[in-house]
Amino acid sequence: MPSSRESAAVDAVFRAEYSFASVMRIRPHLAIVALAMLLVISAIPSRAQLPADQMTTLTLPDPKPNWVYIMDLQFPVNMLQKIWIMDGETRKLLGTIFGGYECNFEISPDHREMYMIDTWYSRGWHGDRTDVVTIFDAHTLNAIGEIALPPKRLLIVPKRNTTSLTPDGRFLLIANMTPATSVSVVDLKARKFRGEIETPGCAQVTATGKRQFFSMCADGSMLTVQFDDSGKQTAKTQSKPLFDPNSDPMFDQPAVVGSKAFFISYHGKVLPVDFSGADAVAQPMWSLIDDKDIAQKWRPGGWQTVTFQPRTGILYALMHQGGEWTHKQFGTEVWAFNANTHARVQRIKLKTPGYSILVSNADKPILFDMSLLPSKLETYSAPDGKFLGAYDDIGSPFLLYGP
Amino acid sequence: MDQLVESISRRIAQRTSRRSFLARLGTFILGAAAIPLLPVDRVAHAQSAGSTDFKKSAHKNPNDDLTCDYWKYCAIDGFLCTCCGGDSHDCPPGATPSPTSWVGTCHNPGDNRDYIVSYRDCCGKGACGKCLCGNTEGEMPIYRAQLDSDLIWCFGAPTMVYHCSTAEIVGLK
Fold it and tell me: At A164, is the secondary structure helix, strand, or coil?
């Protein structure tokens, strides 16, 4: 659309030409004046025209350590979930990818691909069930392939360790529940489902080695499974119970770095477990809370309640004040601990109580605090806890992932 | 306790026609045979882990089944079927009751007794989206699946698509 100023100029030229033609016939001197006016009008510089837009599709660069990936359930329907990709430093939204019902998300270690582990029904909410791994190019965000799965995925409000990638990125492990529990092994290199490993009495999956994963079991033990390149189980060892779920259950989403996992309990205990060997080895349990904290009813809670920063060795836990069975209450503070000395090094008061936290693995780490109600992501510098900023309205966010 | 376990098993058997599903359920239970996995048994354990803070917090509307405070809903997690065209223990039209459930123990202030409550999802329709409750009395992580309310408890239903949640009294604790 031309601007009003451009329209006026066009009208003026049109009128001038019309007048020139009529006046020429009767008054030549007026015609000369009109011609001069026309030249003057034509000489008025019009505003420089913008070049025509050329529409393209942008692509993403390689991720930076402070990028964050946010799982939005698109509540309440959550049949078409979403990952928001955000730069944690600028809090700018960089893009999104979509997944199916109660889907899970993984990023390849080389950052070239992303995976949605999906369940779809052929008619949306009914019809035939299809479980599939959808493969995304991590730069274009295009879906570039898929791998069919047995329709057995563990359908649960998404948790980080419902699926897991081996550290070399070769195998994608997917927890199943039908309600019999097992793990599907997918060869990402061959783009093939390889087989299923039964994990009776134990649930979820976390890779802790090149061909090794663990599942948590109902009696507080850990099942360590080793498998080969054909996806077949080669060894399976169930540890003795490492904690007592009857007196103090461990949350089922530990902070995992390499072959080590930090579990925290409903009552604020920390259980570090070494999964580097064929059997899980518990390290001495320690506590997030002292007698004074207990008197003030401090305890951990939320959804993604614990995160570990390997460069600094600091463990962060989402804390609130509440009684028994408040393990899903939003955290008002994040407490930071030296995981070696067990000393509390910081208490970070959150502007908005959080449901999930994640600390980035960067030189200048960011602590992400995510609230579900209101829908908000806040960033704090870690571990000093300086508030950096917030991003509002990210749907119904439950999980945070780093690159 | 044994009677309650039997009762839950009978309910599953009565309401499930899919043989393959029963086989899978059998694997689920057998697979964990070395540990106390049956729901009621585990409720008892979970109860010993907790205090009575939830009970003390005094339900505001213990008799109003349109609110999260309704006494039977002490461990309900999801959309109340009572708000979706159903009832506290009936599915809305077009939804299918799941033959499987998670369980909790709730105190009824009306008769001052503790009841085992089976939280059965209604499945086969998109999410109702009304009256969301997130009560967590006795709720356990996924490795104790039958006390985990975040699971889609539609095992054995025609589809695993969750619609809303109900609360059925199974018996006295």
Answer: strand
What is the distance in angstroms between the Cα of B8 and the nearest Cα belonging to chain A? 16
Q: Does B132 touch chain A (CB under 8 A)?
A: yes
- Choose, out of A118, A155, A330, the residue to mutate when testing the contact with B (most B CBs < 10 Å): A155
Q: Chain A contact for B127, CB < 8 A?
A: yes
Share of chain A above pLDDT 70, in %: 89
Is residue B26 pLDDT above 60, yes or no? no
The shortest CB-CB distance from B127 to any of A77, A121, A324 is to: A77
Number of structural domains (chain A) is 1
**Residue A47 burial by Cβ neighbours in a 10 Å radius (0-12, 13-18, 19+):** exposed
Give the tens place of pLDDT for each residue, A74-105.
998 889 999 999 999 999 999 999 999 999 99
Which amino acid is located at A338 in the chain? Answer: N
Q: So what's the pLDDT on residue A47?
A: 73
Q: Per residue in B107-129, pLDDT tens?
A: 999 999 999 999 999 999 999 99
Contacts of A340 (CB under 8 A, 6+ apart): A313
A227 belongs to a structural domain: no
With a cut of 90, say whether residue B59 has pLDDT above it.
no
Is A280:A222 a contact under the CB 8 Å cutoff?
yes
Residue B39 in this model has a pLDDT that exceeds 90? no
CA A23 to chain centre: 74
The chain A residue lying nearest B24, using CA atoms, is A180
Domain of residue A28: give its range.
4-43
Sign of torsion over alpha carbons A310, A312, A318, A324: positive
Considering the domain boundaries, does residue A28 fall inside one?
Answer: yes
Task: Give the pLDDT of residue A95.
Answer: 98
Fold of B2-52+67-172: Electron Transport Ethylamine Dehydrogenase (2.60.30)
- Please report the pLDDT score of residue A346 as a whole number: 97
Q: Which of A119, A156, A181 sits opposite B31 (nearest CB)?
A: A181
Q: Do B48 and A219 touch (CB under 8 A)?
A: no
**pTM score, whole prediction:** 0.84
Name the closest residue on chain B to residue A223, using Cα atoms. Answer: B143
The shortest CB-CB distance from B126 to any of A125, A181, A204 is to A125
What's the distance, Cα to Cα, between the start and end of chain B in Å? 8
pLDDT value at residue B96:
97
How many other CB atoms are there within 10 angstroms of residue B171's CB atom? 14
- Kindly state whether B44 is in contact with chain A, defined as any CB-CB distance less than 8 angstroms: no
**B28 interaction partners in chain A (CB closer than 8 Å):** 178-181
Å between A153 CA and nearest CA of chain B = 11
Q: Provide mean pLDDT across the span A42-52.
A: 76
Residue A30, pLDDT score: 58
| A 4-43: CB under 8 A from B | none
